[in-house]
Amino acid sequence: MPLTVARRLGFEKYKECHFSLILADRSVKLPVGMLEDMPLKVGSVIVPTDFVVVEMDEEPKDPLILGRPFLATAGAIIDVRRGKIELNLGKDCKMVFNVKDVMKQPTINGESFYIETLEQLAEDYLEELGVEDKLQLALTKDNEEFGCLQAEKTKSIRDGKQVENLFALESKPKEESSQEQGTDDDWSELKAPKVDLKPLPKGLRYAFLGSNSTYPVIVNDALDPHELETLLVELRKYRRALGYSLDDIKGLSPTLCTHRIHLENESKGSIEHQRRLNPNLKEVVKKEILKLLDAGIIYPISDSTWVSPVHCVPKKGGITVIKNEKNELIPSRTIVGHRMCIDYRKLNSASRKDHFPLPFIDQMLERLACHPFYCFLDGYSGFFQVPIHPNDQEKTTFTCPYGTFAYRRMPFGLCNAPATFQRAMLSIFSDLIEEMVEVFMDDFSVYGSSFSSCLSNLCRVLKRCEETGLVLNWEKCHFMVKEGIVLGHKISEKGIEVDKAKIEVMVQLGEPKSVKDVRSFLGHAGFYRRFIKDFSKIAGHSQDSYAKKQSSSLMKSVAKLS
């Protein structure tokens, strides 16, 4: 049912439904909601029917489409050979529709003639139906004449449970298409989060979407006032796409993506005891547990057959600038604290592996390079936005000094989490990838041949994020910049260059003292093999008796990149 038809019938509230519709032209529509148990009269029989309400670009000629659920309720028997559809609506009520008769109608410009017989019958019996059934009268009158149907005004005509379901919808009202314009409440200063504004690398600056320096974003420092204002106006339309705290994460729809944990042996389990934590790390775990509980990402559990321990690892923040030994300012992501991680090694060893492919980094970087404008986006705690199937949530149980908890959303550490997340991102951006955006896990790189082109592409990506519930981390999003770091490489209009921060890490490794150290160094250096001449020749002998000598040669080659 088109949204315009539903509104003419007086409906403004619809039951929430979590699925998408793929139309004949392969376009994807997200339903506004659902109307349940609508009384649909066929002949002399009323058939309760559920209608999925969809917002259409223009109202179709046939406003209602009755699908397979209706045919099942109506007891339809389809005879393909004779071209007839028989509806068994009751004990003595059968109706037969001849499809071939419709096909015999003449066509003009490829369109069939049709006869409004049902409309004529409806007009003939409208007054009679209105007298006998007040609900039917209310549904068929125009809003201007009869007004919108309100639940409190129809208590006297609620004769059954089916009628009550029409007004007991739990869903929220449909947000108007004008939501893209944003509201003042979205950027309310009272709701503004408290954020720490760190020093930014050269070429970047803070701009603010709210009043009194609230709701910051990171933009290109070289934008002129007109370009900056144009960018901010567009960004203000997409408040729900930008996340400033964990509470902003609503999660992707389970119909879009759900993480499953399939085990090789379903009867197998593993229960590990908690590990000791020093007072500082114990406080980190406590804060993380409280934060995840408040956001509804975890919940207490006591009877899981899988229990994993927690440990803490260093946590990096957004990009800031630090000085190296040469007093050069190097853009880097510094360690700002610790974060809690779960040791799922035993669970991962028992899990069936998901072999969904990740993009080739070199090919993605080649497509991304040599553009004048970029917008580098990053998902807000990306994995936490993907729901876990209810049957598999108990397998994510972890133990800590404050109890045992399980995840509702996909945590870090699961072996198949990257594949699940990449699959989710491809399902969201499949028609935009390689045209205006490149996606690798939770890193999204939007590009354009000009400021207006890149801004238009950015708006399409942000709109898609809002439609699917994907939230971006404001602190790691850089808008309308000339260059940026993508997967350890510097991307700009010049092409692909090395990241100085990575070079600093390798230079500070020191001389290898064992084969393990050589392998560690080669792992770092191999990331930039495209920039080092004869890399394979230098590295080929690095694990033989001349390991130290050869690695020193490679060290010098790496140092030259800086």
Task: Based on the model shown, name its key terms.
6-stranded mixed β-sheet; Reverse transcriptase domain-containing protein; 3 domains; Rev_trsase/Diguanyl_cyclase; 23% strand; alpha+beta; DNA/RNA_pol_sf; HIV Type 1 Reverse Transcriptase, Chain A, domain 1; 562 residues; Peptidase_aspartic_dom_sf; 17 helices; single chain; 29% helix
List the helices and strands and how they pair.
Blueprint: H1 3-8, E1 21-22, E2 28-29, E3 33-42, E4 45-53, H2 68-73, E5 76-79, E6 84-88, E7 94-98, H3 99-103, E8 107-108, E9 111-112, H4 117-132, H5 134-140, H6 143-146, H7 161-165, E10 204-208, E11 216-220, H8 225-235, E12 242-243, E13 270-271, H9 279-294, E14 298-300, E15 306-323, E16 329-342, H10 345-350, H11 361-368, E17 373-378, E18 398-400, E19 403-407, H12 417-429, E20 437-440, E21 443-448, H13 451-468, E22 472-473, E23 478-481, E24 483-486, E25 489-492, E26 495-498, H14 500-507, H15 515-525, H16 535-540, H17 547-561
Parallel strand pairs: 11-23, 12-22, 13-15, 15-18
Antiparallel strand pairs: 1-2, 3-4, 5-6, 6-7, 8-9, 10-11, 14-19, 15-16, 17-21, 17-23, 18-19, 20-21, 24-25, 25-26
Helix pairs in contact: 4-5, 8-13, 14-17, 15-17
**What count of structural domains?**
3
- The CATH superfamily label of the largest domain reads HIV Type 1 Reverse Transcriptase, subunit A, domain 1
Beta percentage is 15-25%
Strand order of the largest sheet: 10-11-23-17-21-20
Q: So how many helices?
A: 17
The SS-based structural class is alpha+beta
* Major sheet characteristics: 6 strands, mixed
CATH-defined fold name of the largest domain: HIV Type 1 Reverse Transcriptase, Chain A, domain 1
Q: Give the CATH level 1 class of the largest domain.
A: Alpha Beta
* CATH architecture level-2 label of the largest domain: Roll
Any low-confidence stretches, pLDDT <50, length ≥5?
Answer: 133-181
Number of strands: 26
Instruction: Tell me the Rg in angstroms.
Output: 30 Å
First-last Cα distance: 62 Å
Overall 3D form: globular
Task: Return the average pLDDT rounded to an integer.
Answer: 78
Q: Helical percent range?
A: 25-40%
